[in-house]
Amino acid sequence: MASPASPIPLSRSEAYEESQNVGINPSDNATIAEVIRRRYGRRDVLRGLLAGTAVAGLGGTGLSVALPASDAQAQVASRFTFTEISHGVDRTHHVAPGYDADILIRWGDAVMADAPNFDPQHQTAAAQMKQFGYNNDFIGYLPLPFGSQSADRGLLFINHEYTSEEVMFPGIGRQEAKDKLFKDMTRPLVEIEMAAHGASIIEIQKNADGKWAVVNGSRYARRIDAGTTAMELTGPAAGHARLRTKADPTGRSVIGMLNNCAGGMTPWGTVLTAEENFHGYFWGKLDAGHSEARNHKRYEVPGNWYNWGQHFDRFDIAKEPNEANRFGWLVEIDPYDLQSVPKKRTALGRCKHEGAAVVVNGDGRVVLYSGDDERFEYVYRFVSAGRYNASDRRTNSGLLDEGTLSVAKYNADGSVDWLPLIFGQGPLTAANGFNSQADVMIETRRAADLLGATKMDRPEDIEANPATGKVYVMLTNNTRRKDDQRDATNTRAANEWGQVLEMIPPGGDHAAPRASWSLLVQGGNPADAKTGAKFHPSTTRNGWFACPDNAAVDPQGRLWITTDQGEAWQKASGTADGVWALETEGPNRGLGKMFFRVPVGAEMCGPCFTPDGRTLFVAVQHPATDGGEGFTRSGKGSTFEDPATRWPDFQPAMPPRPSVVVITKRDGGIIGS
Ligand code: FEO
Ligand code: CA
Ligand code: CA
């Protein structure tokens, strides 16, 4: 018999608002807005001196948000030659002329060869565990055979971030509201949710007609989920008492991963997948004075987004206070090895991780950048102790277990200091409740607070460009920034639009203690002065965007941005989310161009190129769910019975289905060229 429902202080949407839109960082550290203001000064910004073209050197003053010094420079040809599509919103997807955008795999399609046919009216956990999961986010392409650069056969690793019960299950609507309190979320439905989380690994190949297809019966096919997949905790926190539970007295073995959002690839052919909003899966109340109270509060545990704790004790913090400490990690998975156990790498810190950008530094050390996606949270960097060896794959994976995690402090002079999170150094001592490196990793946020890191506008995906050594950080928005935290333009106090930050390691040394930074663009409509948006002046009415979330660097070294405006799409831009190409170098720097658009209510995730640059995979997440109220042809929130769109099938009995879309050029050419 399930335990009675715990009191729910906030609905999921309210909790989301509290966590994502307010931010819970209690420290006094400077926000990025304050740093920008200090660096540029209000008067200079108002005069348009943000329009410098120079790349900021260490200590330099050039901020290269938008841009060119003369019309002549603006005439330089774009590196992206496709015909731009327009902003807009409707029930389907759109891609630039001359391209195909085909559905590769949808929620409910077979991953395992023996998966039953998808029947959304009668879904079961057993079926879901063999089928493609929900809300696809990160996509990683791994060539087959291993070690090749094959661009016509490979594996796709795809995250399934979360579930949307109102459009997944018939007859229940959205469940976390106070008047429902998950009353319809039975144990069988919760088990389906757990099975729909995690990841899918599929084999795909490009057939003679140039079209990609899933290989049925592939020996690599695998589902990873939240309810059954065993994972190992590694690194400095593994085995620590704070990671031990009744089910796992070793503190080294966890079932499942939660809310896996963006991710990254390693040079040795594994995937890093980021556990983001893990707090939402917990409910219950700690005993008064519990030793984990401060820690859980800093991560907003319990989040009460789901009622898993009603049916599974480990998600009730009153019954299993340490279980939440076993989530919020970067998870390394080897898609080439069906038997491999996913590894939660605790040396990389614990937060609401978004992406993971991995580079091999010039000296052979492995450097990993990751963001903590919540308002006023931080950007992190890990530098391995050991060195990469291209011929020793097994040892390479261990590189992520030993090294130094640092947090970014952005300075007004254009520099960024990487502050190491090392037990015993500075404030990270017993006096502040840290008794080991394990404590520092479990409470990464609080450690970073004490070091004086810079509070950012929701750091999401991070990507490094191997061609230039520059690193791009998607800062998605921060509508709750207060007046006294405004930047000098005075228009971005309530930053609905986000910005793209560029970091430049000195001499290409990603492990250096100090780098430089610059703003590439500030999102929003540049034609509306109130937004404070900054793009290249030649950017068209369709070339600007709001809320950068994911990014990819293509094999030609060009940057592509995807957006997630959430329920605020109508207010932030009026267009559905999509893919934009964005110039980063030369006189066109900051010039955006719209390439792909999602159906109403979806967000755009997972941009991923094949090694030849001729295929782009994108993930259309949660079609119909976000902001259906603002869609004139719908005007209300979506349900299974009445969604804002039934993309991609458009069949009367079929709900909308999160899907991976494969984009190719009809002439077989390179995407964007
Ligand atoms: Fe899952 Fe921060 O997006
Ligand atoms: Ca994201
Ligand atoms: Ca997102």
TrEMBL record:
Q: Which SUPFAM superfamilies match?
A: Calcium-dependent phosphotriesterase
What domain of life? Bacteria
- Which PROSITE patterns does the record match to this protein? TAT (PS51318)
How far does the signal peptide extend, from start to end residue?
none
Record-linked InterPro entries: PhoX, TAT_signal
Q: Name one Pfam family in it.
A: PhoX
Q: Which residues are listed as membrane-spanning?
A: none
Matching entries from PANTHER family are given as: DUF839 DOMAIN-CONTAINING PROTEIN (PTHR35399:SF2), SLR8030 PROTEIN (PTHR35399)
Q: What is the protein's given name?
A: PhoX family phosphatase
What is the organism field in this record? Ferrovibrio terrae
Lineage here is: Bacteria, Pseudomonadati, Pseudomonadota, Alphaproteobacteria, Rhodospirillales
